[in-house]
Design brief:
Chain A contains 19 helices and four strands. Chain A has 571 residues and is an all-alpha fold. The longest helix of chain A is centred in the C-terminal third of the chain and has 36 residues. Chain B has 684 residues and is an alpha+beta fold. Classes of the chains: A mainly alpha (571), B alpha+beta (684). Chains A and B meet through helix 14, helix 15 and helix 19 of A and helix 7, helix 8, helix 11, helix 21 and helix 23 of B.
Chain lengths: 571, 684
Amino acid sequence: MTTNGWLQILLFSASILALAKPIGWYLAAVYEGRVRWLAPIERALYVASGVNAEEDQHWTRYTASMLLFSLVTMLLTYAALRLQHLLPLNPQGFPGVTDRQSFETAASFTTNTNWQSYSGESTMSYFSQMTQLAFHNFVSAAVGMAIAVAVVRGLARRSAGMLGNFWADLVRGTLYVLLPASLVLSLVLVQQGVIQNFASYRELTTLEGAKQILAMGPVASQEVIKQLGTNGGGFFNANSAHPFENPTPWSNFIAMVLLFAIPSGLVWMLGKMIGNARHAWAVWTAMFVLFLSGAGLAYWAEARGNPIHAARGVDVATSAAQPGGNMEGKEVRFGIANSALFATITTDASCGAVNAMHDSFTPLGGLVPLVNIQLGEIVFGGVGAGLYGMLVMVVLSVFIAGLMVGRTPEYLGKKIQAREVQMAMLFTLLSSLVILAMTGVSVVLPAGLAGRNNGGPHGFSEILYAFSSAFANNGSAFAGLTGSTYYYNTMLAVAMLFGRFALTVPVLALAGFMADKKIAPETAGTFPVTGPLFVLLLIGVILIVGALTFFPALALGPVVEHLFMGAGSLF
Amino acid sequence: MATQKRPLFDAPIVRRAIGDAFTKLAPRHMVRNPVMFVVLIGSVLTTLVLARDAMGGRRDIGFTVQIAIWLWFTVLFANFAEAMAEGRGKAQADTLRKSRTETTAKRLADAGDRTQTTTVAAPDLRRGDLVLCLPGDVIPSDGEVVEGVASVDESAITGESAPVVRESGGDRSAVTGGTKVLSDYLVIRISANPGETFLDRMIALVEGASRQKTPNEIALTILLSGLTIIFLLAVVTLQPFAIYAGGPVAIPILIALLVCLIPTTIGGLLSAIGIAGMDRMIQQNVIAMSGRAVEAAGDVNTLLLDKTGTITLGNRQASEFIPVSGVSIDDLADRAQLSSLPDETPEGRSIVVLAKEKFGLRARDANGMEFVPFSATTRMSGVDNGVFRIRKGAGDSVARWVREQGGVIPLDLESIVTRVAQQGGTPLVVAERHTATSARVLGVIYLKDIIKGGMRERFDRLRAMGIRTVMITGDNPLTAASIAQEAGVDDFLAEATPEDKMALIKREQSGGKLVAMAGDGTNDAPALAQADVGVAMNTGTQAAKEAGNMIDLDSNPTKLIEVVEIGKQLLMTRGSLTTFSIANDVAKYFAIIPAIFVATYPPLQALNVMRLHSSQSAILASVIFNALVIIALIPLALRGVKYRPAPAATILRRNLVVYGLGGLVVPFIGIKVIDALLVLAHLV
């Protein structure tokens, strides 16, 4: 580890801290309807689609609107991918995408997962990338944010189960936040060297005299929303490791900041909307501590490198001439610190963009992304999804520990009772159900075992990672697993759909129930949801609930692999 | 009910509980507790596997036998905990039942004629029947006195041996079945059918027969069931993982892991905690009509307390002598003391004491003086001897007396009387007449409300817990304010009518607050019913008792504070044991996961941080620890966690350290110790 490496982590942390308030303030203004500078367009959209954006929707109606919107857009994308060869902007003449691949991709982009078991540059036409995948990059992020805002409203209000208007939230998030930010920042990325064209692929002769085809395309416009909306679906297969997608340390830094920008701002917005900034900062701090611990562990594990290399006399020390540590699967222009940091951030947030191969990380370095995902991606998390996932953990923490102060647990003055606990537990146990059960089935079925690149615990980790990533709507792959089979396409698509929609229904129900409740005034007897003690409690509950669910699986994957590595064997 | 302090582990209760632990194994009962039901199924499965292995002639079943035994113990220990909690109530119910049986009643055919009675068995009485109770009779059922005044021994219900007066009309007309008439006679209209009497309800309550899960218990059960499902998934999926890694795990070992992980500690003790909470109320002589009420007590935000009898002593005390102009204060003190020497009322005694303490007047011999007691018509009391007569009493009555005796009323008397009244006191005017002279007014004794000792500290404690106290009084706002300030309550409601009280409760509730109050009169009934926690005084009317959700047998309204504390303690105990139970799992994973997989993946030995002896000893030690911790925590579940009033943040910090951190650390030590003992005993 180097001072420079730590400074970069510090710089990143400081940027996120500094951005939380301005972004959060703007988000609150947008969702409270105070930002109106595109009002004519907004109104036109409502009129054109025939929705009443003024209507305050009950949670059931809000949920139904969200599900309906997602279903329709998913089906449209499925059709567009299947019919790709008949549609314009296809200079390479790619054929229609296969059924299994179209289903998985449609599910993947609709759920904000962006798991890609294909190479974008050799499968998708420019039309598919720009009108389908990019479209979902925007709206799936806006849907996530809308759900989070609805949940926050449920906590803040006393409104007989009303959570706001889904259509207004969807349009406002897209129109006032995601679109303008993408427009402006795309230009910054172009300045850094990210390409943006409609050209055919170029064939070049390399210095060694070999022929190489360079994929082209409108990359910059896709890149910002890929990060900002925690989507993660790269234009190119190599994702953010590709020099046309992520050319410089600055573009890399911008990409990382964009990842946490909205999730961190949403936490500030929570404080604003519930009128309790100290609680929001407590939640933010818990997230930050978890982020920094993960980044630190991953950086340490990667900088330490592979002890087997060292034992064989390979020089893995950091020096002016070499980055040292475990450079396998990492880009030289990013080095150890920025690769470890990127891997941590992309899995804290449910992004899944990668600038290094997680599969090539040391076992402990790879454990960090895996654990981040399995904790539910609540460390800042996906846009919206991180906040509502975290709020479920807050509700659980308050319920478990809240009794200890001798009152029926209350969160923000609202009693947590049977129905709320039911929804929070449903949310929590779905992740163990889907991830563990699907992994369990896959590690014994021949169809599941067929996709592995490696055997032993590492092969196990690959499968575990794939289902964790799909369910948590992350979309990054441990790689090594061949995902483009009927078995995995289908299983993973189902996991993604569960991860998004089976989770949001109980969350919105929870918010609806909370909105129904009286708000009791805060007294000295109220369970404190601010301050260091609460931060520690929240972290403890997150880690223990996560650890209890996944400890056996992790022990049989990365942990035992790490121990094997110490004993001198690899997989 | 006569509540003797029983030791926690009373031999007859323990014996009975051991028997009950087995009868409670019935699936019909077990299914009410999802966590322990899973353990039961696990125990049955393990036993079946064991039977199969034994019949298959396997020799190495010693380990499975031990696992099976300890799994059964886990279920039995949980049942034992519940039975122990119920045991105390059952013992009390038995005592109560004795007073109910074998009672006969003298039924009257006609209310007007007390000579015509027919003897009937108490269970044959119906609502509306009239019965006559003579001295020595046990009152056969609950009812309303319609005629007569009598002293009644209520010790069978309240444990209080001093008899109380019951009379027709007013707030003291309710009688309870099972109590005994000591003097005079009563004609009672029966107000409850058999099986619905207070005694019947009390028996059902202390026995826990009609126990329903409370809202918070339901929520907690959902959490625990959810955790159980999560662990079930974690354990079930472990099998394919193990097959992938190289070899399946034996079923009893998976069951052992599952039982160790699911929250058996809190699952096993949950109902015991609830029952014990009700039981602690009963030990305070408070009967809670439902567990829900006990729980609500913990959540109370606002306490409404009646001034008289709750915050202040029921009687007032002399605090000052104020002479009228022309009279020396010593003369006033002297006459006031003289007039009060034979006066045995608390007010009278306080006058004697004040004169002695402030003016050095020793109590003199009252011989030769004739005491004129207070009566409703004269509204004065005093003393007469041959030489003088002294009177003290309400201003207008004494003034009339002075005028009748040819005296004049000093001009400043009225202003003194008014001032005292405004300051929250009761003015007693003192006058005298010597045989030679005409009567004259000497001055006024300031009788003041006396705040009960320690109230201010209790209110401070309540405030620290975030509970606001509101004093309810019929006094004028001025008086109320001065008493409220002296007592240290947060707020007061002066010149309160029952409607005002009701409005206050509704206002607090609409702000999301929970309100507790105590009351006894019929006009308290609507407010008692509206309040979230309504404690009716046992001396109160039937209407009040039916409206409240708790009854204080001691009729001590101050007990509202204890009620709140018991409610809080109940919730705290649940939360603490839940936290402890969940925190325990970390150590169990570190014991069992390496134990299961070390054969497949030898490096996993590194996770065996406790350095347990072998795989078998590690698994067995975890299961044994898991079972024993239930037994070890029974006293805590029954007594409740230590409770000191403090702000929530302080309580949380303390309990998190004790039960959260403790829950993490204790099993590491416990499992290690049990592992060592198992090795010593050659059990593995």
